[in-house]
Amino acid sequence: MAGNEPQDSNQSVSAAIPGRASIPDTPSLSFVLHTADAYFDIPDPKSQPPPATTQASATAPNVNGESMKPSETTQPLNLKALKEYEKLGLTGNIISACANIPYAVGITKDGKFELTPRPGKSMLRDSLSYLSSSNLWKHTVVGWTGEVLPALSAEFGELLTRKDLLGPSSPTGEGRQLGSVAVHDVSGSGFNSAFIQHFKDNEPSIRDILITKDRRLELETLLEHAFKDKIVPVWLGEWTDDRHDTLLLKDQTRWKRYAEEDLYQNLHSNIDREDERADTAQTFADYKRLNESVADGIIKAYKPGDIIWIHDYQLMLLPEIVRRRIPSAYIAYFHHTNLPPKEILTMLPRHTEVLKGVIGASVVGVASDGLRHYVEDYYRSSLKLTGDGNGVVKTGGRHISLINVPVGMDITVVQQGAYGEAKVEEYMHEISRRYSDKKLIVARIHPDRPEGTDFLLRAFEHLLEQYPEWKSRAILILLSNPESIHHSSKSRTSRADTALHVVNINSRFGSLVHQPIVYPNLKIPAPEYYALLRLADVGVVASDYEGVSTMSMEFIVCQQEKFSPLFVSEKSIISDDTSSAAVDQSAQAANTATTIRNGLAMSDEVKQSKHKALLHYFSEHNVASFTNEFLTKACASFAKYCPYENAAELEQAVLLKAYQSSQTRLFMFDYDGTLTPIVSDPDAALPSAKLLQALQKLASNKQNKVWIISGRSRAFLSKTFGDIKGLGLSAEHGSFLRKPGDETWENLAASMDMGWKAETDKLFMSLCEKTDGAWIERKEVAIVWHYRNAIDHDACLARAVEAKALLEGEYLKAWDVEVMLGKANVEVRPRFLNKGVMAARLVQETFANGTSGFVLCAGDDTTDEDMFRALLSSKLKMDNVFTCLIARDGKPSLGYYRVKEPADLVEAVAILSEQ
């Protein structure tokens, strides 16, 4: 065919592209299509052949005898192998904070809950799934429940069994319903659109739903234990009573309006000045409350040494909120969405507060080096932060590392969906029969970003005009996301404009037997979608101002037989200048038409070479590489900066001012390592005269409630502090209680089955036989294995970790106990009794009338973190609450303040006692 010689349609990319390594010099001025190998910075196959792929499975299609397989070159992050990170004290637990939990929550007419896997966000979902499948990490997901809807009917899928939920390695049962919570498998075709329609149909009926405390607890218990991940749901609504028993869910969509209708639109440069709403103050307040509520959920789940990984634009305030509450936390944020030019970003209502919220994190991640440079430039120029130009900015004495990590998805899922389902073959047969002599151009468009769609349609129109040989042969199929639950008026207008534009082109170039554009305007079933991608002769991602599209990856995986070229929009990028006034749009459309024509006529050799390189790229940059690379870079940054920057020294003047201004005061102290130094012989750890005198004076003041909450036995505490009548005592981490002025002890564990102690004692005895210097402390309730006096502490630590795993598994799984790794010890105790429970009780009793006051709570060990957590979760105003860790190093803690030695704390307490 004349004029159809294949041409290299690569062009210089004019701004930072997700996946590229640098920022080109020339700013982007208009919509341009590039071949995907240029977009992802793939080497030119003519100058550098791509690496070979490896064999995947017997069913995978072959590319010159080779098949697609996700790369295994990125090894899982192994904490034991990362010696340089030992000082971080990582627990191996990751808390993923997301806008929503992974399951949509429905409620039936008789009040039963129903869970349905939530559609969308495939890259994020894949990353969460990867973490939950890892043996190296424990994983907790915290997020809003989302709108609680009338329950979906079972027509969308079969109920999963308990075995399906728990996985093959967990205890299983064959019940088809968990308590009163049904769970649907909705992986079948058509679910996404059905879900959206279900929401629209039922929105009026979800405005007033009452959820009691018992019902909330039922769902929370299921989500905590029944799935591979621990899931912590966050409830948002209004309380109907002072006891917080019943929650009213009303106008549930309010919590995401700012995120979806202001923030999301701005991030994708979808700005319409005339469309600004008058209720932004209220929607931003709701957005802030969503972030604060997720922070509450994190506090519930958090243990010092956990990594908190916050995801995307719905939670951009969350890093700063968590940082204020847990100064030493390891917080990382990843921005999955695109970013607009700076002049557009500054048009966002409350943009400064939003962007400041992000840098509460110690690590901020984006998908490309270009985006990283953009973020660093924004913080340096707009927020006046100092930076080194290499991805580190500084604020308030803290360093924030800006990192780029190419995103990826689980392409094995796409592989299975595209090549392992018979339904796909059926659709392919039907589509091939219908378009037997046509060339299919399959394009993804987005209703919220209409410029790319409009330009693609004009380019296709030019194609039919410039190259009449394609007038009856080319079919453009427009695939659109289902209409979002909440969207801007601009997207509604753009849908109408797109439909009208399609009608005009079809009227002009079509006939009774041929329509050049197919625009279904719905979310097609997955098998049909994969069939289209496999049959496409050209793929186009036309959404402007978007990050890496999942369709890019899906298209390449689906093209292992035809090798058809993929083109992406140049405006799926950051550009410092988006003005198009000086650009000849007609000329640009003509050039794009030529690009598409060249793709249709590209030689098999060139197509196969480009496809092979892209397939290798996506195999390398998969969900495993994304997750592991992000965590590896984050841990490196935490190790470099965090231990030295996030601790606030306890200032005597601030403490004294808060003490003097409060009418009611509560003191809660650990003993060993807090009021006295840790010594090799516990019996030698006796209080100083200065400490006893300070406690006596504090306890004699009727405005003060003073408690020692220790792991020591009640016999030791009675002997040591029994003469101070106004002092409250709690022994064995809250198992025993002696109130001020009382001589008797209350046993809070009296009703518990203690059969677990004999099993624990057996294991601890075997450890003592292997370890010189180790010994067992048999308390009335708890039992402790100590190795403080052992010679080889490294070997003892390894044994302690192993013992903890054994106790939590086969030894004690029948009892509700907790295994704690302490300072050179392993302690087993009842789960429902800990220092946090005692602290919560004392707060409630001391401030029973709802008023706030002064609180000083100090400790040095893991067990004391429960007290800190209880205070953070209380309703007390934090201004006069002092949680203080005694530590010489920068280890992570829920304690806001630090002192280095017990003597420093005793000195501070002594000064207060003189007031």
Automatic annotation (TrEMBL):
Domain of life: Eukaryota
Positions with biased composition (Polar residues): 1-14, 62-74
Gene Ontology terms for molecular function: alpha,alpha-trehalose-phosphate synthase (UDP-forming) activity; trehalose-phosphatase activity
Alphabetized Gene3D superfamilies for the sequence: Glycogen Phosphorylase B (3.40.50.2000), HAD superfamily/HAD-like (3.40.50.1000), Trehalose-6-phosphate phosphatase related protein, domain 2 (3.30.70.1020)
Gene Ontology biological process terms from the UniProt entry: cellular response to heat; fungal-type cell wall organization; trehalose biosynthetic process
Stretches for region Disordered: 1-25, 40-74
One cellular component term from this protein's GO annotations in UniProt: cytosol
Entry-linked InterPro entries: Glyco_trans_20, HAD-like_sf, HAD-SF_hydro_IIB, HAD_sf, Trehalose_PPase
Family: In the N-terminal section; belongs to the glycosyltransferase 20 family. In the C-terminal section; belongs to the trehalose phosphatase family.
Designated name of the protein: Threalose-6-phosphate phosphatase
Taxonomy of the source species: Eukaryota, Fungi, Dikarya, Ascomycota, Pezizomycotina
